Amino acid sequence: xxxxxxxxxxxxxxxxxxxxxxxxxxxxxxxxxxxxxxxxxxxxxxxxxxxxxxxxxxxxxxxxxxxxxxxxxxxxxxxxxxxxxxxxxxxxxxxxxxxxxxxxxxxxxxxxxxxxxxxxxxxxxxxxxxxxxxxxxxxxxxxxxxxxxxxxxxxxxxxxxxxxxxxxxxxxxxxxxx
Length: 178
Fold this sequence. Notes:
By secondary structure, the protein is of the alpha+beta class.
């Protein structure tokens, strides 16, 4: 399995100020913004057309002393790799249950390390889906069945498109196109 670090999610006290800071300081652009649940807002930031987000900022940090890291995410090559991690997590008594989640653009399993740090292991789907989106997926299905279910669930979401089309749009917005 080829595992690569992808992004992190930080909990922040002042969402707009932090988003402005990362956009100004590092040249990030807002890729998506919306609510998780009923009252928590999240902003997805990227500095490249190849990654939907490299950093996400989410409301919810209550004090300077409270930790800001929500989770680190690691990309793998296939749904079968994600399923293997899901099965390993389910069998390992150090980490507790894993949560199979799809955002439409990825198939993931979320879990915590032995000290409670959040981890996401995911593979990309062939589609861009406006974020935030969240649903569960069934790890007992084949990879093809998982993709079919994800497509059926998210293809009606505004902004659903092939990932290559999204990346072309982003490359133009970042000034990376020809």
